[in-house]
Amino acid sequence: MKFVKFSKKIENEKYFSIINIRSDYGGEFISDLLESFCEEKGYQHNFSTPKTPQQNGVVERKKWSLQ
After folding, report:
1. Does the pLDDT of residue 67 top 60, yes or no?
2. Distance between CA 65 and CA 67 in Å, rounded?
3. Residue 20, helix vs strand vs coil
């Protein structure tokens, strides 16, 4: 899963701790694998409200700032 690799890279290279994850209801974010990974690492996984492009835009901007 790409998020697992991405989170490890951020935590190792940038020395940041991930606390919260906010995502939309895309299929790649709704999986048992991601949920178990978040529980294991202690991440809080929040979803944006459906049908609100304003919130999805915030997520996209934050994603690009991390990359």
Report:
1. no
2. 6
3. strand
Q: Residue 40: pLDDT band by 50, 70, 90 thresholds?
A: very high
Please give the span between the terminal C-alpha atoms of the chain, in angstroms, as a whole number: 17
Those residues whose C-beta lies under 8 Å from the C-beta of residue 2, and which sit 6 or more positions away, are: none
Are 34 and 3 in contact by the 8 Å Cβ rule? The answer is yes
Find out whether 59 and 29 touch, Cβ atoms under 8 Å: no
> In this structure, are residues 11 and 18 in contact, taking their beta carbons and an 8 Å threshold?
yes
Res 28: pLDDT: 75
| Strand ranges in the chain using DSSP code E only, listed in sequence order | 20-23, 44-47
| Both structure tokens of 18 | 């991930």
